[in-house]
Amino acid sequence: MRTAQLSSHRRPDWCLPLDHASPVPLWAQIESRLAGAIREHRLTAGERLPAEPDLARALGISRNTLRQGLRRLSTCGVLVRAPGFGTRVCAQPTEVLQGLPIPDLTPTANW
């Protein structure tokens, strides 16, 4: 099982820089970036995301903001979160994402 790599305070390759000045909330940008990375197979089924404190630090956001961004994807079944085991991409992520109205908020898409 693969784990998304995150070296000391480095932003993951699949997570484009967040725009702190944007009217789009940071949690929505995180949700969009993760959904896009899964759709484009940069994050694959079963892959584990970096630990929340490490990922939040690398993105320059609070853990609460990160958790808010992960919550909807988890609730819809795209991500599986378990204390002590971390956050992983579900077994059939692209099928689950097809039914979700998550806009593409990458800078090249709408900004």
TrEMBL record:
It holds the Pfam family GntR. SUPFAM superfamilies: Winged helix' DNA-binding domain. Keywords: DNA-binding, Transcription, Transcription regulation. Residues 24-92 form the HTH gntR-type domain. GO terms for biological process: negative regulation of DNA-templated transcription. InterPro entries: Bact_HTH_transcr_reg (IPR050679), Tscrpt_reg_HTH_GntR (IPR000524), WH-like_DNA-bd_sf (IPR036388), WH_DNA-bd_sf (IPR036390). The lineage of its organism: Bacteria, Bacillati, Actinomycetota, Actinomycetes, Propionibacteriales. The keyword Lyase does not apply. This is Putative GntR family transcriptional regulator. Coiled coil: none annotated. GO terms for molecular function: DNA binding; DNA-binding transcription factor activity.
